[in-house]
Structure prediction request, 399 residues.
Amino acid sequence: MIEAAAPRLQQHPDAIEIDGTGKWVFPGLVDMHVHLREPGGEDSETVETGLKAAIAGGITTVGVMPNTVPPMDTPESVAYLNKSAARCGLADVVPVPCVTIGRSGREPVNFFELHEAGASAFSDDGDPVYNSGLLLEALDTVYEFDGVIIEHPEVKELAGGYVNSGSVSGKLGVKGIPDVAETADVARCMEIASNSRGHLHLTHLSLPRSIELAREECFNSANVTVDVTPHHIALNENALLEHGTLAKMNPPLRSFEQMSRLGEMVKEGMVDAIASDHAPHSAHRKNGSISEAAFGITGLETLLPVTLEVLTGLQMPVISILNLLTCGPARVLGIPAPGLTPGMKADCVLFDPEIEYRLSEKGSFSRSANTPFHDRILKGRVEAVWKGRLIYRDGEFVT
Prediction:
């Protein structure tokens, strides 16, 4: 438990003292958008390896997406995730089961049964909820227990490509994904949300126009929140020319101008949360051509340093950045916000903001290594994590 927080504390004779001079202590981060792959994709990630990567990144609460095999769409599958996480004794998990059975887009799940099993957030992530009537019904239903629908904004019929539509897609000789594939679905979702009191969250927005649509005054009665990823404010489409399939993701990396404006919009307070969209893939799924490789990158261990690098570079206050990684996503998920108030269970991170290091495959706890940030010099590293007890220190887990 947090006993006290003050400039000067009386030393207890049995206390272990950790020198935090020049370092930061803050609440454990909340990453609301993570793929743990288990069951069905254990060659890419497991609950244990994913939660270890989360802790190493200072993340103590993880929102777990449902695109597993089979998809998480029943109380039993929610219970499986909760039990698997409890056995690990690492980060907390927040199950985010499907909106539709099997993520098929055809028949809604039983929201009330899933809520009784512990779920309040729902998503068909990887696919949008195609049926607008079903989306509206889902929003109205989850409103009854203060739930949220997390939408993957994409018009599949307009997408169908592999990278951002533009100069880089031309250089690579592959079909591009136009902006309208995202913005058209954002506009559809805003119209639907404005006709419901339910909470809609638009995830991994990659375009300034998408955020503009979500914030337009004509929709100000809609209960809508949005997040962006670190990679969409740190990288642009040219990363594909350097990193190849490691920089292939959906939504795709956009132009330099769009990336820059997206970061400015985060600074301006137009975004509610930052989430990693951690999408691990085994090596064979990322090998091959741009058109063959899977979409997605890992992000748990780079969430904090990459976000800080970009947003402090834009002169955004650190406390505001941390809010987007803690209280913001907690509010979206409908869970208590983390804090450092005396009397609370210890859920906090010790972070060295000055240390610099080169990101290495060998230093990752994730089972996969599909990130374009390999060999990049990062600044800032987690030194210790408490989750009820000290569980991680100096790169090792405490047993």
User: Anything to note?
Assistant: The mean pLDDT is 96. The chain has one domain: 31-338. The first strand starts at residue 24 and ends at 27. The first helix runs from residue 47 to 56.
